[in-house]
Design brief:
Blueprint lengths: L1 H12 L5 E10 L4 E8 L5 E8 L13 H13 L7 E4 L8 E6 L7 H6 L7 H16 L14 H14 L5 H12 L9 E3 L8 E4 L2 E5 L6 E3 L2 H7 L19 H10 L6 H28 L5 H7 L2 H12 L5
Helix pairs in contact: 4-8, 5-6, 5-9, 6-9, 6-11, 7-9, 9-10, 9-11
């Protein structure tokens, strides 16, 4: 069924296309799906990805920018030279495929453990932290007047949001209480310059090849705010996958990340980055707690939810290492 629907769609907007082949679902959540397929063309097939909310589903969750905004941001990034898939088509009602967009497929790896350990990526690993600094600078430099409508998010608002989410779990954790108090006491206030923030700049949302970063994916949490948030998020220990002495994704140093960022013409505020690393660690801990609640209370009793939920305890250790470091 999906191949017939996609074939009808691509023939309408991709000149010369005769249909599609090899459609395969990559993921399917409660409200969004991702499909890989080939656009069949006499001059050669083109690999493509469909990201959509199927017919009958409502609006995106409150925190999400929405699929139309996501497509716009990815295309703006691509046009500005930021590694991002090229958006080929934004779905219309005539496509009868739901809400979403189709983008060119970018080959590479997203699985962190492969990127951090496989010999294929050995030459790329020493370059990745600096590359990510340069890419983050490119994202934060996208022209405000071209951006779609996005929510604004301040540190103060996010602290309050995290506190509400944490307390709604009814799962008291003294370390989380300590982190919330620390964040409130160290709230840096509004940034000197508000920019686009990717919102989920980390492993899993980066396509890596032997040559380095090839694309940034999943712009659904993009918003306007403090650009240091993205730099803090990529440094959260949960994204190091055991390589805790390499703060940036388990492959590089903060100095390399900051060097790439500043070489691209933007300024780093290291204290704000630290603040957002603490906030990001707590945010992931609260998200893990939410997964455990869904496992315990429903509707999702999958083992995956339970396994992610238990990682809340890891974030408690990470927060103590950040907020109460032991002396040498």
């Amino acid at each position: 069924m999906i191949e017939a629907e996609l074939s009808r769609s691509v023939r309408g907007w991709y000149p010369g296309a005769t249909g599609v082949a090899s459609a395969a679902k990559l993921s399917g959540g409660a409200s969004q799906e991702t499909w890989s397929f080939e656009i069949v063309h006499p001059l050669g097939n083109l690999g493509a990805i469909l990201r959509r909310a199927p017919k009958g589903y409502g609006a995106s969750p409150t925190r999400a920018a929405g699929l139309a905004a996501e497509a716009r941001l990815m295309q703006l990034a691509y046009e500005a030279g930021v590694p991002s898939p090229r958006v080929l088509h934004v779905l219309t009602p005539e496509d009868d495929l739901g809400t979403g967009f189709i983008m060119a497929r970018v080959e590479g790896e997203t699985i962190a453990r492969k990127i951090l350990r496989d010999a294929e990526f050995a030459a790329a690993r020493p370059k990745l932290a600096r590359q990510l600094g340069q890419i983050a600078a490119g994202i934060h430099g996208l022209a405000r007047e071209k951006l779609p409508e996005l929510r604004r998010l301040t540190a103060t608002a996010e602290i309050a949001e995290l506190a509400r989410e944490y307390r709604s779990l009814n799962w008291p954790k003294p370390v989380f209480e300590l982190a919330l108090r620390w964040l409130a006491e160290h709230d840096p206030g509004p940034p000197q310059r508000e920019t686009l923030v990717h919102g989920d700049f980390r492993h899993g949302n980066l396509i890596i090849g032997p040559d380095g970063v090839r694309a940034v994916l999943d712009w659904e949490l993009a918003h306007l705010g403090d650009p240091m948030e993205d730099l803090g998020w990529i440094c959260v220990n949960s994204w190091r996958f055991g390589e805790i002495d390499k703060p940036v994704g388990g492959f590089g140093s903060r100095e390399e990340l900051f060097g790439g960022y500043e070489a691209a013409g933007r300024k780093v505020d290291a204290d704000r980055v630290t603040f957002y690393e603490v906030m990001g660690t707590l945010r992931w801990g609260v998200m893990c707690g939410g997964m455990m609640q869904r496992f315990r209370l429903g509707p999702d009793h999958s083992m995956e939810r339970a396994m992610i939920g238990r990682r809340a305890s890891e974030t408690e250790i990470d927060l103590l290492r950040l907020l109460a470091p032991r002396g040498n």
